[in-house]
Amino acid sequence: MSLFTDKFVFFKVFIYFIFVFSGSLKWLPIPIDLTLLSLLVCTALILIEIREIVPLKKHDRPIVILITVFSLIFIVSNLYSISTEYAKSKTLAIILNMFTVVYPIIVFKKSIFSELKLLMYIIGGLMIIALFYLYLNNMFIIFHDSELLVDKVPTYLVIGIMLCACFIFSLASKLTWYVAVYRLSILFLLFQLGGRGPIINLVLSLIVFFTLNLKNYKINYKTGFAIGTLFFTILIFGENIYTFAFQNVDFERFNIFKAGNDDASLSVRGNFLEIGLESVLNHPFFGLGIGSSGFILDGADVSNYPHNLFVESMMELGILAGLLYLSVYILFFLRNYSISKRNKDMLILFIIVLLFYLEDNKSNSFDSWRCSIIWIMFFISEKRYKVGIAN
């Protein structure tokens, strides 16, 4: 039996995924820019599929409209931006973000969850192999020593959040020994990477997942046996497990309250937020325009951001735009809460959106907002086939 439910659907999902996450693949020795190449292929697929467009669910249209309007406001703010260099690159990024919204609406004509799950398993498997190679050769230091970090290689935070997404997708599969090994490998590597944000966001997302999925869990002898086995394994081999899995993990970094004063990362971001909020108070209505966050934070026209999309949107566009950004996610979570409780595939995608939303407000910028938008659009696209099409 083929791994692919539909090879052409898999290709459409794959090339869309490559387009969005091509920035993390710049280190590959490919003679042509991967973003441009995947953009051209995605455009060709749009032209092929544009003859017939499957409409969105009525409740999802406002979300798509809000993202589009928000992006257009960003671009229009070029008229008064105090930035020139950073504004140019950010404008291009915003256009690519808008393309991220358009592609799935036109191209996806049937359910894509099976193909997406397969793709995430492939990505997860390749990442596990590569990261274990680095771990066994004592090369994880490259993620934490700026002098050793290879140019264009994804940071440990980028790798960590994708590992978290792969872990969540594995919850769509029945627990077998190889799925268990896959999940444990991801958790092991996450702690070795030392990404505080991805791990905390994964824990929060899993709490929501298990809470919404609670009605599907049944306590029987198999569940009791599994829980008992886990308890006695930890009781008997706890010290060995800790020595093997966590001996190199700095748990002090995970204590945000205790590490705050000594952690350079937290102090820098805290300072950024303080400067950003001060700028919002000084320019509350329209902000200072696209790309201005670099000027605000560094006093120079460079690429920089406050690591919080809500604050960034207010810095560059004003308070109303910040509320517009928040409304995208408020609408999404409120309107899709019910269907996510009823359908496990939709719940997986719902939790991935939550995972990336949390990461956006801890580490990211609107330059790469499409890494979050893609999951919203996967959800909206899949919803058309899970609950029927509204006229």
TrEMBL record:
Its main location: membrane. The chain crosses the membrane at residues 9-28, 34-51, 63-83, 89-106, 118-136, 156-179, 186-212, 224-245, 279-297, 317-334. GO terms for cellular component: membrane. Residues 186-326 form the O-antigen ligase-related domain. The keyword tRNA-binding does not apply. It holds the Pfam family Wzy_C. Keywords: Membrane, Transmembrane, Transmembrane helix. It is found in: Membrane. It is a multi-pass membrane protein. PANTHER family: O-ANTIGEN LIGASE, TEICHURONIC ACID BIOSYNTHESIS PROTEIN TUAE. This is O-antigen ligase-related domain-containing protein.
